[in-house]
Amino acid sequence: MTGKPATILLNPAVLGGITQALLNTDTKPAAAELEAALKETASRLHAVQQDLWYYQEHATKCSKKTYTTEDQKTAGCAGTDTLNQCSVKLFQYCFSHNQNSPTRDFPKTRQKMFEASDRLDKALKEYRSRLKLIPEIPASK
After folding, report:
1. What's the whole-number mean pLDDT along residues 15-30?
2. DSSP state string for 42-59
3. Which phi and psi (to 5°) does residue 15 adopt?
C-alpha cells in the first residue's frame, strides 16, 4: 500500500458478542430513573428528619407531663386500670390530641420516605443490572 492509508469501516457483526453487548446496552433510562429517585429521596429525607424531630419532641413533652385526675378521666383511665395501663392511655391521649402539632404529619411523611427509598432501591438494582451487561474489553497489548 502506498500513499494515504485506506479507511476501514468496522462491521459490528464481525466484532463478536462482547462488542455487540457494549454497543447495544442503553443505561440512559436506568440512569435517569436513578437520578430522579436520588433527588426524591434527598428531598424526602429533609422532611422526615424535621417531622421526626417534632414527633420526638412532642413525645418527650407528653412523657414528662404531670397529669391531673381530670386528665386521667379524659384519657379514659378507669378505676380498675393499673398505673402502667393508665400511663399508656395518658401518653396516647396527650400525643394524639395536639391539634397544632406537626406530629400529625410524621406517619404520612414516614410512609412517603419508605416509598422513596423503595423507588431508590429498585432504581439502583436496575442500573446495576444494566452496568453488568456491559462487558470489559481487554486492553490491547
Report:
1. 74
2. HHHHHHHHHHHHHHHHHH
3. -80, -15
Please report, for residues 6, 15, 27, 125, 138, the alpha-carbon distance to residue 24 in angstroms, rounded to integers and kept in the order given: 28, 13, 10, 19, 18
Please state the pTM of the whole predicted model.
0.64
| Three-class secondary structure of residue 81 per DSSP | coil
User: Do the beta carbons of residue 42 and residue 74 sit within 8 Å?
Assistant: no
Classify residue 87 as exposed, middle or buried by CB count within 10 Å of its CB (0-12, 13-18, 19+).
middle
36 in Cβ contact with 51 (< 8 Å): no
DSSP 105: G
pLDDT (tens digit per residue) in 30-40: 889 999 999 99
